[in-house]
Amino acid sequence: MSAKVAIVGIGQTALRTSADDRIYHEHDYEAARLALADAGLDRGDVDTVICSGWDAVDGRTISDMHTAMSSGGYLKDSSHVGEDGIMALAYAYMRIAAGLFDVAMVTAHGHAESSFETVSNVVFDPLFVRPLGQSHLVSLALQANAYAHRYGVSDEQAAGVVVKNRGNGAVNPRTHLRSSVTPEDVLSSDPVCYPLRALHCPPQSVGGVALVLCSEEMTRRISEKPVWVTGIAWAIDSYDLGSKDLTSLSSLSSAAQKAYGMAGISDPLRALDLAELHDITPFHELLAYEALGLAPEGGASRLVEAGDTARGGRLPVNPSGGVVCGNPYGAAGLLRAAEAALQLRGEAGQGQVPGPERALAHGMSAPSGAAARTDCVVIMEGG
Amino acid sequence: MAKRVAIVGVGLTRATSHRVDVSYPELVYEAVSGALEQAGLQAGDIEAVAYGSMDPFDGVFAPERWNVEACAGAGVANLPLMKITTGGTTGGSTALAGYYHVASGMFDVVLAVASQRVGESLEAQLVLNTAVDPIYERWQGAGAITIAALQGVKHFWRYGTTEEDLALIAVKNYENARRNPYAHLMRMLTVEDALNTRVVSWPLRLSDCCPSSDGAVAVIFAAEKRARAIADQPAWITGAGQITDNYWAGDRTWYEDWDSLSMLARRVYRQAKIENPLVELDVAELYNAFSIQEIIEYEALGFCEKGKGAELIRNGVTTMQGDLPVCPSGGVLCTNPIGATGLIRVAEAALQVMGKAEDRQVPDVRKALAHAWGAVIGFHTLMVLSSEAP
Amino acid sequence: MTQEEENIIVPGRWDLPFRHTAGRIASHFFHALVEKRIIATRCPRCRRVLMPPRPFCERCFVPLDEWVEVKQQGTLEAFTVCYARFTGLPDPPYCLALVKLDGADTALNHLLGEAELEDVERMKETVRIGMRVEAVWRDEREGGIQDIKYFRPLA
Fold first, then answer.
1. What does the pLDDT average to over C26-44?
2. I need a labelling partner for A212 at 20 to 30 A (CA). Which of A10, A170, B319, C148 fits?
3. Do the bridges between strand A196-197 and strand A191-193 make them parallel or antiparallel, or are there none, so unpaired?
4. Over the stretch A75-108, which tens digit does the pLDDT of each residue have?
């Protein structure tokens, strides 16, 4: 792969519980303006716009009629992925790699105009599964239980992941939940969907994320602090929950292997300086360690217990606090890429990992939770 | 620079108002297996999937999830799959996504799939109404038909286009559809019949409006080396693009002109090195969901001057026997599985270039144009397909 | 499996509750409608008066916070009359109208009332692009776009 693509602009709005003073696509607008300012560009410099999100969550068919405008797309070439924003990054990467565009705007928003659990039920087929009450979180809980049961992951071990991430989030002014929790807090929180408790589950946050991507030539001309995308891959897994192994994430393994191949990584635990993962539940952060080759099957929780993935550990995971601290639904995956890029620029503030050179960002795009989930892995390197 | 990319296989499904004989994954499987068969490929040859649908029509949100294995076993194989949705342009946008997958150099053989079961929804216009902004405009009862009717009212008012002109468009498309086994409406229609159908939304009569269809389509894109090995005559992509116009209905002074489509056409013709589209194009598959739009598209795409679109149909220029046949398939006016429709335009244009359009084949097609509009007429996509690599 | 077997159709229905935030810009506009005033945002850069009011100018890509009041009379820019009945949509016939209010650069999407719509031929004689119209207010206004009942032809 010879094409080089860089992230040259990062825009994040403050995450919060609700934002009744804004129409939903203003999050894209605010994030896009911040990303353009960060890149030192204006709307006229943008060649292509890729928006993201799920229309049924926004309550509007063809939501990109609004979000494309908010992202600077008027009279430009735009498209829209019905996915988390991380997949918009993937699409923009391809458009630039093709040599047909120089500057791409990628946007995502979370605005919570409906309950995602209610909406996600209608992703499931109406014939066999939908009437059973299957949803995003229900299917993820099913998977968490299968994994915990097979490998004997204890409640305390799962709580350890939450405690780590909430501790990181407590010093990240950009995230939503900025308070640490104790293992006892997690273990005594209300059961939501066995084995998931309230503090295992991410909040539903409101906010926007935007990235400006550039071709190599344009990057060299305009950017003093580029973050290069050196590997990117995505993959989907099976829809049928009954016919796949729930105790591993095959789509994430597949994406990781391809991304590592592109970036020339053979030993990720040594090669990476930090990772931002889509920890939709603590069990899924552990599953991700294994899929990413950071731990052997069933061995992920030992990494947390040893402090290897804490902010000062061998491979800090979710120094931003992760999704359990901030979850703008539809933008949470792209936010992982934004946070990883900030780290590589040394601009992550109090949560900064010292001198990172190479980072991994993982975004999950999964309207039906564990069924046909898509994982996207992005490897980035500082300029 | 971009890799050379061609279409090497197309699969279409039968389209009816409700395909009660198949479940959703079966419908998609029908299209995908057709494309694999035409290209002589196995499911294992597919490296990535771009999937398009406009969700609410199906009554299944994000149906690519349920249908994932119908896409060449994409779930089991952990393939990269990307969901594209942009309203009526969804199919066109999905074709563009398939093209960029290959043009990026990351993939050599990519499957673009689009599907829609409009027949599963009891009222398509109500679903389309959810595309309208819920704060200011949704209450008012707008849908695709009323927006197209606004275009008609303004085109009549400014250019003197008549109901008879619309009837000529309908008659031409209905006649073409009778030679297309994948068309939904396949019946005779005369000008007199057309003018006797009821007014749906002034000035559009029933024969000026597309049906609601169930259908799916699959198109295989391949990088140059693979394309030459797979197909005797690949359909090369020589120009492609999308344009995004404002969504505020009241900002548009151009209902009769579609200036954004003209702007996109100039960009795409420049890529494809087309100077005189009427002369250089051999066939066009336009997104004529409503008869008036085909006339406006002639003008916006530079087949004639503004306001002269009706003359092209009056003079038979765009019939099968004319200089530039438009919609040999019968077009959207005769078949409209919404999210799939834009990709069907690309598929039909590719079949024409590949010489595989059977009874609806236009002789010696070297250059074909595929168009889609969507998003309450705010978006357009175009793709130029050619018998010669760029 | 026999040929005669019936294909089963499973009924479906989406009934998903939403709460759509209007945001501060549309909210300010709606509050003004309660007082029978029609206001719009003006772009500080291109100076267009944008109706309906919106939070940013998509061409200049700058935020909008300057308000101007526009007139309650305007010109019919485009219209259609819907004669077909669609489930869940208004009863036919109804006239969708784009009205460019005096003082605004873009048109408001609304309805035309007090016009003869029932008969197509009669409608064609009475409803015309370019005709002057004015807002008709509801007596009970709640802060929403339908506080304007419709626009009617100006005598």
1. 97
2. A170
3. antiparallel
4. 999 999 999 999 999 999 999 999 999 999 999 9
For the domain bounded by A5-115+204-222, which CATH number is listed? 3.40.47.10
Specify the number of domains making up chain C.
1
Point out the least confidently predicted range of A22-31, A113-122, A129-138, A144-153.
Answer: A113-122
Q: Which of A212-221, B119-128, B376-385 has the lowest mean pLDDT?
A: B119-128
Q: Which of A268, A265, A274, A361 is nearest to A313 (CA)?
A: A274
- Report the residue from C16, C27, C58 with minimal CB separation from A114: C16
**Predicted-assembly ipTM surpassing the 0.90 threshold:** yes
Reported as a pLDDT band with limits 50, 70 and 90, residue B1 is low
> Is the CB of residue C60 less than 8 Å away from at least one CB of chain B?
no
In-domain check, residue C16? no
Domain around C104: 23-153
| Chain B interface, best mutation among A62, A77, A373, by max B CB count within 10 A | A62
Confidence at residue B333, expressed as pLDDT on a 0 to 100 scale: 97
C5 in a structural domain: no
**Annotated domain spans of chain A:** 5-115+204-222
Residue C12 inside a domain? The answer is no
Measured between CA atoms, the residue of chain B closest to residue A75 is B244
Place of tokens 């999100």: A53
pLDDT digits (tens, 9 = 90+) for B138-148: 777 777 888 89
**A305-343 pLDDT, tens digit each:** 999 999 999 999 999 999 999 999 999 999 999 999 999
Closest chain B residue by Cα to residue C12: B59
Do the beta carbons of residue B199 and residue B352 sit within 8 Å?
no
In terms of CATH, what superfamily is B5-122+212-230?
A: Thiolase/Chalcone synthase (3.40.47.10)
Domain assignment present for C14: no
